[in-house]
C-alpha cells in the first residue's frame, strides 16, 4: 500500500472566530444575546427589539426603538419586479428553494447596498434583510399554495405582518390573532442567533470573500435547509406524525440506537448543548400555552412529543449520549397549530435567523483586520507520483 502522505499544516484550524454577539455554554444550557439571557428576552422583549440588540449591541431606548421600527417598516416591500422570480419555480417547489433563489437574486435589485467596503451600504443591507425576509418568506408560501401575494401592512407589528402576509386573502378581512402573533414573535426571538452554527459560519465564510450580502444570506439559507440543521423542525414533526401514537415510540427509540439504521430522533441532540437547549424549554412552555389558547387539547402529536421526550430523558443510551430535545423539537408543533404546513417551518427559521446572520456578517466586515476564510485540511490522498500513459495503466 502506498504510504498515506500526510500534510501537517503546522497549525490548528483557524475556524474559530471572535464575536461579541451571542454566547452559549453547552454544559450549563446557557444562551445570551449580547449578554442578556434568552429566557428573560423571550419573556420581556420582542423580536424587533432583539434585532436592534443583536445589530447594535445594546437594548434601545424608546426613541431608538421607534426610529428603528419606522426604518424597518419602511423597507418591508420588495421591488415589484421580484414577483416575476417566483413565477419561474414550479408550484410544488419547496419554499426554501424559492427563498434561496429569490434572496440570491436580490443583489440584482438593491445595487446601493452591495458594496461591502461602504459601512453605510452594509447598514442599509442589514436593514433591508431584516425588513424584507418575512415578505419573501410569505411570498414563497403564497406561491406554493397558489394564492396571490399579500403586501406588507405597516400598521401591524413584525410578527403580525408576517402572519397577515401568509394567511390574508384579498376576498376577506384577516384579523391577526394577538395570541398567534405573540407566539410567532417568541419563535422568532428563540431562533434569532446562535453563535457559529453551520449556516452562520457559511454566511461568514461567504462574506469573508467580499460577496454581496444577499448572496451571503442565500448561502446561509441553503445551509440551514439541511435536516441536521434548520431542516430538523420539518423532519421532527414528520417523524412525530410517522410515530403516530405513544405505543409506537419504543420502535423508534430502538431504531435511533441501531448503528446500522441511519434513523435519528429529529429534534434531539446538539453539537454544543450537552445538558439541555434553553430554547427548547421556552418553546415547550409556548407549545402548551398556544395549543391551550387555540383550544387544541387532545393534540396527539404533542402527546407523542412529550412521551418521547420523557422516555428519551430516562433512557440510558440517550442520557449517555447527552441527547436532549433541541430548539426544533417543539417548534413544529406550534407552527402546525398556527396553520403552517411543515414545508414552511424551515423558512420561518430562516427569516428568524436572518438578523443573526446579518449581524455577524456586519461584525466580521467591521473588523479591518479580517481576512478571507480559508479552512485547511489534513491530506490523506495519494503521495506525489508521475503521470502514467494510457497503455501502461
Ligand atoms: C440546529 O449548531 C447550532 O447551534 C444549530 C442550531 C442553531 O440554532 O443554529 O442549534 C439549530 O441545527 C439544532 C439541531 C437540529 N438537528 C436535529 O435535531 C437533527 C437530529 N440531531 C442530530 O442529527 C445530531 O444530534 C446533531 C446533528 C444535532 C448533532 O450531531 P452530532 O454532532 O453527531 O452529535 P453528537 O456528536 O453530539 O452525537 C453523539 C452521539 C453520536 O453517536 P456515536 O457516534 O457517539 O455512537 O449521539 C448520536 C450520534 O450518532 N446522536 C443521535 C442523535 N444525535 C446524535 N442518535 C440518535 N438521534 C439523534 N438525534
UniProtKB/TrEMBL annotation:
Metabolic or biological pathway, per its Swiss-Prot or TrEMBL entry: Carbohydrate metabolism; tricarboxylic acid cycle; isocitrate from oxaloacetate: step 1/2
InterPro entries to which the protein is assigned, alphabetical: Citrate_synth-like_lrg_a-sub, Citrate_synth-like_sm_a-sub, Citrate_synthase, Citrate_synthase_AS, Citrate_synthase_bac-typ, Citrate_synthase_sf, Citrate_synthase_typ-I
Keyword Transferase: yes
Reactions it catalyzes: oxaloacetate + acetyl-CoA + H2O = citrate + CoA + H(+)
UniProt keyword Transferase, yes or no: yes
GO cellular component: a single term: cytoplasm
Record's keyword terms, sorted: Transferase, Tricarboxylic acid cycle
Entry GO MF terms: citrate synthase activity
Pfam families: Citrate_synt
Active site (record annotation): 270, 328
A biological process term (GO) from this entry: tricarboxylic acid cycle
Family: Belongs to the citrate synthase family.
PANTHER family on file: CITRATE SYNTHASE
Protein name as annotated: Citrate synthase
Organism: Albidovulum denitrificans
Amino acid at each position: 500500500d502506498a504510504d498515506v502522505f500526510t500534510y501537517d499544516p503546522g497549525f490548528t484550524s483557524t475556524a474559530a472566530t471572535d464575536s461579541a454577539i451571542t454566547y452559549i455554554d453547552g454544559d450549563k444550557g446557557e444562551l445570551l444575546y449580547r449578554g442578556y439571557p434568552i429566557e428573560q428576552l423571550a419573556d420581556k422583549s420582542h423580536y424587533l427589539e432583539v434585532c436592534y440588540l443583536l445589530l447594535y449591541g445594546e437594548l434601545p431606548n424608546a426613541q431608538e426603538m421607534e426610529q428603528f421600527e419606522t426604518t424597518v417598516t419602511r423597507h418591508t416591500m420588495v421591488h415589484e419586479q421580484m414577483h416575476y422570480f417566483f413565477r419561474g419555480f414550479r408550484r410544488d417547489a419547496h419554499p426554501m428553494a424559492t427563498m434561496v433563489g429569490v434572496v440570491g437574486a436580490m443583489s440584482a435589485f438593491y445595487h446601493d447596498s452591495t458594496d461591502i467596503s461602504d459601512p453605510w451600504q452594509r447598514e442599509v443591507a442589514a436593514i433591508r434583510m431584516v425588513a424584507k425576509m418575512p415578505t419573501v418568506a410569505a411570498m414563497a408560501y403564497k406561491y406554493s399554495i397558489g394564492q396571490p401575494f399579500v403586501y406588507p401592512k405597516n400598521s401591524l407589528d413584525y410578527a403580525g405582518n408576517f402572519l397577515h402576509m401568509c394567511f390574508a386573502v384579498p376576498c376577506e378581512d384577516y384579523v391577526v390573532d394577538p395570541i398567534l402573533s405573540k407566539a410567532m414573535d417568541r419563535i422568532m426571538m428563540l431562533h434569532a442567533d446562535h453563535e457559529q452554527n453551520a449556516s452562520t459560519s457559511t454566511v461568514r465564510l461567504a462574506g469573508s470573500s467580499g460577496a454581496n450580502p444577499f448572496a451571503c444570506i442565500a448561502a446561509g439559507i441553503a445551509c440551514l435547509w439541511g435536516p441536521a440543521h434548520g431542516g430538523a423542525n420539518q423532519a421532527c414533526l414528520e417523524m412525530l406524525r410517522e410515530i403516530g401514537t405513544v405505543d409506537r415510540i419504543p420502535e423508534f427509540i430502538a431504531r435511533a440506537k441501531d448503528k446500522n439504521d441511519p434513523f435519528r430522533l429529529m429534534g434531539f441532540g446538539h453539537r454544543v448543548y450537552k445538558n439541555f437547549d434553553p430554547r427548547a424549554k421556552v418553546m415547550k412552555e409556548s407549545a402548551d400555552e398556544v395549543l391551550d389558547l387555540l383550544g387544541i387539547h387532545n393534540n396527539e402529536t404533542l402527546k407523542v412529543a412529550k412521551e418521547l421526550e420523557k422516555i428519551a430523558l430516562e433512557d440510558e443510551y440517550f442520557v449517555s449520549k447527552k441527547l436532549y430535545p433541541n430548539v426544533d423539537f417543539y417548534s413544529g408543533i406550534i407552527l402546525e397549530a398556527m396553520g403552517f404546513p411543515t414545508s414552511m417551518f424551515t423558512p420561518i427559521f430562516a427569516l428568524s435567523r436572518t438578523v443573526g446572520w446579518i449581524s455577524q456578517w456586519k461584525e466580521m466586515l467591521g473588523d479591518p483586520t479580517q481576512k478571507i476564510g480559508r479552512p485547511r485540511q489534513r491530506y490523506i490522498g495519494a503521495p506525489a507520483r508521475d503521470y502514467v500513459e494510457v497503455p501502461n495503466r
